[in-house]
## 1
Amino acid sequence: MLFDNKGKKYLEAMSGLWCTSLGYNNQELIDAASQQLSKLSYSHMFGGKTHQVGIDLAEKISDMVPTKDAKVFFGNSGSDANDTNIKLLRYYFNAIGKPQKYKIIVRERSYHGVTVASASLTGLPVNHTNFDLPFSALGILRTDATQYYHCSHVGELEVERLLFMRIYSASPCAQSIFSRLILISLLHFIGS
Ligand SMILES: Cc1ncc(COP(=O)(O)O)c(C=O)c1O
């Protein structure tokens, strides 16, 4: 529960921006942060440097993800992480001699952050208007949002979008024809 400056109560069901799921004033977190601050309050990881807490956390995360020997690259925010993702992709494909592989397909109405690169990935006009974002330099292509309520095409059934949105990305027309064909086959299959 949170209170605003007029004492109005809010049920904070979003957990901040999805990052306070352990709650506010969590004593365990306060103790851990305060112990760490008294031990080593700051140290960077720039230019190949590191520190024990960073190593321990990276190893823990690496063990948790379903990739063998995963490497961990820390960022300061979600936006920063998405910028880094773009840089890593560019770097990788340049390194293996495929610089032409740089396009990124993003969804309309998606949210990926607010820095220059991550706002370019984001599919919301409010994050684009008047910012002169470098969409084409970043190789950004857009496809439909998954939502049916806001983004369905005329005549599209909700089940069509639910079933097929994740399977393919194509023009609205191709989507509609393709999904109808699959739906018809599915209905035949269920009916037979
Ligand atoms: C899916 C997603 N990507 C990126 C971000 C951006 O993260 P940040 O606000 O830490 O820059 C958010 C933030 O809410 C997000 O929900």
Note: Residues 152-192 form one domain.
## 2
Amino acid sequence: MAKKHKILRTEDDISPLNRKLINTVCHKCNFYAEDQEYWESEYECGAYKLIRQMLEENKLTFEEIEDFFTRADLNPERELR
Ligand code: SF4
């Protein structure tokens, strides 16, 4: 962690679903800052909340998320279009 942050939550405060989402989605996100889930007061973006809701409503699975990521352009230098 480069900067000093005030720790707001520990691993015990993060539900198993959120932990899996952070590992599966946030760790591939260009906006993810190391360990942000422990110090950001509101670390969940709209896409994160949408994906979690879809998982909770059984409209999406982690296997499908992983499959989508095999085709997603994760290059942070890509041209916006
Ligand atoms: S919460 Fe959203 S913006 Fe933040 S790291 Fe996760 S996917 Fe990226």
Note: The helical segments are 16-24, 36-39, 46-56, 62-69.
